[in-house]
Amino acid sequence: MSTFAEFGLEPDVLQAISEMGFEEATPIQAKAIPVALAGKDMIGQAQTGTGKTAAFGVPLISRIATTEDRIVALIMAPTRELAIQVSEEIEKLGRFKGLRSLAIYGGQDISRQIRSLKRKPQIIIGTPGRLLDHINRKTIRLDDVRTVVLDEADEMLDMGFMEDIQSILKLVPEERQTLLFSATMPTNIQKLAQQFLRDPEHIKVDSKLLSAPLIQQFYVEIQERMKFDGLCRLLDMEPPELAIIFGRTKRRVAELSEALMKRGYACDGLHGDLSQNQRDTVMRKFRDGSIDVLVATDVAARGLDVTGVTHVINFDLPQDPESYVHRIGRTGRAGKEGTSWSFVTARETDHLHFIEKVTRHRISKKILPTLSEAMEGKQKLMAERIMDTVRAEEDVTPFKWVAMQLLEQYDSVQLLAAAMKLLTGDKKDVNIELTPEDPIRSKKRKFEGNRGGSGSSYGGSGRRYGGSSSGGSSSGGGAWRQGGQGRSDSRGSSSYGGQRKPYQGNRSSTTGRDDSSYRDANRGGRPERKDDSRGSSRSPSEDFVKI
Ligand SMILES: Nc1ncnc2c1ncn2[C@@H]1O[C@H](COP(=O)(O)OP(=O)(O)OP(=O)(O)O)[C@@H](O)[C@H]1O
Ligand SMILES: [Mg+2]
Q1: What ipTM was reported for this prediction?
Q2: Which of 145, 176, 204 represents a domain boundary (last residue)?
Q3: 3 state DSSP class of 232
Q4: Is Membrane one of the keywords (predicted)?
Q5: Is residue 476 part of a domain?
Q6: Which of 21, 127, 408, 500 is least surrounded by Cβ atoms within 10 Å, i.e. has the fewest?
């Protein structure tokens, strides 16, 4: 267990960390911070939600002089939402030191970004596509960059950003520090590491489990056409605080979020066909709790950190095990517990077993609640909310007069039941039909994850991280806790669309950047890319490699 003071950090940085509510370093922070502070190149791997952002953010901030008035650090992330989120965390870490950082991503007015660049930020956090745009326009120069971080490095390769990243890194002086971070490190990352890292240290928080230990993982066997009703039942029986539901394609996400809204759930959809304004609005609503269900493509699978996400639901199974690990990793973060449910059709059971094998985690079967169990769950929740209002002695005076009038005319039970029906937003009679998706087909492939070794531990309750976890994965690790006001959540999105076409080809080819349409599939299920900006020149088959 390490405190941040042990790293010999300057007071401004320590103050920022303390204001963020971090009391102890997480295991990856404890291991990575000293190495990165020493200026070494590094590949950092640790489970989702264990503080990798600060693991690179703290040393990065510490190594920048406040007098600097050029871009000296560059962080790349695969999606716009993640770039925004990382930049917010960097901003907080550098606040007392007075450092300036700027997020650069597609979909946002470029002239606005150019104006912000005039403030001379020392740190740029961007998606590769838009970064290249700025480089070509000569509005960003990388000649003075001394630290480069690739967050979710493996994902950026999967999305076909290899060439973009190569072009960008060629412009950064060789005398630099390069850091790669992700919860998953498939073998193709070696290629990037060999090319761009110098004698890197592989810092890995050992765990038998690739997925975060505090997530209870379930699957539900279900027919494609039953998925929607099954989802509603699950949501009713065990109402989440906040939930993210992953769909395979943009069309799927759009249809599903609309359907859920029609049934009365407070929900919205996030995918690459939305404008950046719409994406920002959806994220804001999810963060502030105006909606409690976010339906998203894989654009939201990586890195997003939203406090209060208790459930992740794979309405459609993801194509690859890494994607599964990252998707479910949107819950069970920072020592909190979470639950994931995956819908599996009969033809997808093989694929589920493949995911289990790669992630080394048994996913337990869950039986769908019956209609009446689901209804009961929903009613119980409503009853609790009503009772809470009564117990809190909230002022209901303005409603009393109408209540008395109604009670004079109608039966009290009948009245309360009608009010509860309205409150539960029960619209079961609304007919919903979703366009069916083809089942995911499993393709075996060589996979190298975070395996073997002893476990790290993030457990415990509340804001304290420590102890061991369900699933028995962990040990060691110590207790990192978050006191104070906690931190912001973020969400991001990256959408991997569904795929109706066979997966072949090589994703890590050609350039083409359009993070707006990450890997969603529109008709046909072509996955959407997560970065932003321009049109892709890849053929659809190039989008899918793996397995
Ligand atoms: N030392 C700490 N103590 C308490 N909370 C922390 C600490 N470090 C990070 N956190 C919080 O833990 C959460 C997860 O952090 P972060 O998003 O960096 O995880 P990650 O490892 O990058 O996950 P992912 O693999 O999903 O990207 C955040 O809410 C962050 O504020
Ligand atoms: Mg992260």
Answers
A1: 0.99
A2: 204
A3: helix
A4: no
A5: no
A6: 408
